[in-house]
Amino acid sequence: MESAELTRLLGTYATRVITPCGSTAVTGLELMTAAPLTRAVKDPVSGGWMSAPMLGSLAEPVECATREAPDGNPAVAALYPRFHQRTPDQVLDEEVYQWALPLTDAERMKP
Description:
This protein is α+β, with helices and mostly antiparallel strands and 111 residues long. It is built from four helices and two strands. It starts with a helix and ends with a helix.
């Protein structure tokens, strides 16, 4: 690939990629809301271009799945009695989301 073409490609990539910000939930929400709501598709009848929904973009609010909801969320509160400790089969527990390292003793002592 020529250097000018590679530079243009990397520039396009950089404008389309979002830097992670905040928690994984915030970054995921940013990615879903950054996706365009529509895309151009060719109309098979007229041969012209028309607008169609973009799959995967977040056009309107959605309810979270009960396995993804934290304790205290209304979606969970309606399903289980108060002070119920959810079991592993009732909670989404992915180690991908557990990316923060535990604090060391020296870090705990700092203000």
